[in-house]
Amino acid sequence: MSEDTIRLATVGRLIYRRRRLLALLTLVGALVGYGASVLFPPRYTATASVVLPGAWEERELLTQAAIADSSVVVDQVAAALDWPGVDGRELREDVSAGAADGNIIEISGTADTPERAQRLSDQAARQYVAFAAGLAGDGTAEAERPESLRQLVVRTSRRITELAEATDPGQSVESVQTRTELTKLRTALQEAGDRLEEADPVADRAALVVMGPAARPDGEAPPTRAQLVVGGGLLFFLSAVVGQLTAARMSRRPRTEPETAAALGTTPLGTVDVPEDPKDLRHAPAPRDGEAPRAADPGPRARLRRLLGLDTRWDVPTPRASGDETGRQARYRRVHARLQARLPGRRPLLVLVPEGDAVARSAAGRLAATAGDAPPPGSPGTGRPALRVVEVSVARPWVPDRDEASGAVVVLSAGSRTTEELAGVAEACADAGHEVVGVVLAGPVRPRPARSAADTRDAAAPGRPVAEDAKGAAT
After folding, report:
1. Confidence check: pLDDT of 77 > 60
2. Is CATH 3.40.390 what the domain over 255-460 is classified as, yes or no?
């Protein structure tokens, strides 16, 4: 499993190189979302508001909201609507209530048409008001009791006044004390009446009021068809991106020279460049981990993979700009020189290329051509091993016997094969009696654009003439 951090540049490279595949999967996800919107008909939601006069605490409002969408109220709504095939159990999912600011209970009803949604919410509001009134009673007895108390207080206060006036108007101690006690009693009765009016729950909490009929909805309730289409496309897009990132992170393919050499049990000999040419480098489909590689197939399947951009790996670095041909040939000569240093002699040397690796096959051909053109060190005809290119199937690797060659060098592109596949190639070499003398990594490069004739003439044109003094020195 790769431990490299997934960076935004990596995600960007994935989206750019797999843009055709991602676009196709996004379209498929959008079609799936559209199909889901067809299977599930649109829904509409209407909301009715009920005002609770007086002072209410937050928990009391939550209790009222729970009562509004309780099974008892919903069953009464279903009985009042009397819709065919619809009972209270089905309506419980379609009726909801919540407490809003300003002592308002909002009751929402959801149905398949705007008219049914409006009727449902209005009927739910009416049934809630009726049920709440039934819980608190009709309010007649509660309203009569405080009124009777107030009338009793008025009559008692009037009687106290009459008693005070009928008391002996003299200034004796007994008369003054009697009038004082009667006045205190009348004042206490008036204060009690005032407190009774302030604390009257029926006066503070009058009957619940429905704020008119619910407005008929003019749009679908979420998720709408557009939301399902966009959500399906986005879900498929993100799933494809995450899936490919996960697969690349769990890949067991060595990409560096030390990792590749360790998988083969040999030493790295260097890296060579292969110019990208669409006519020559027809990449075979990249095999999955644990799957046999497939050779390039000119059939419709290969054309489809090439059309979707699946014929090349996305997790390899972008090919860098190539230098000139002289620099590339210098790399091949250095690799050949290292081969001569490790295996002097004139016996043939096998160059093993994984089947289907077009970049490695091109690099092996260049390396063999370099070995044939390289001047031998010392006397002519000595110290130069001949190279023979052989393609090896990593699914069932087979290498010619030792009597045809004295060793093997493996040429492959970075990250194209797993550790297990490379270990299988090394075991095949050992069975055939060959020593893996080294590994060469081949990387594609972008050739420089050809220079136009005008640029060539400009480069070849002489510079500005330099004036010289009488002694021939430039000025």
Report:
1. yes
2. no
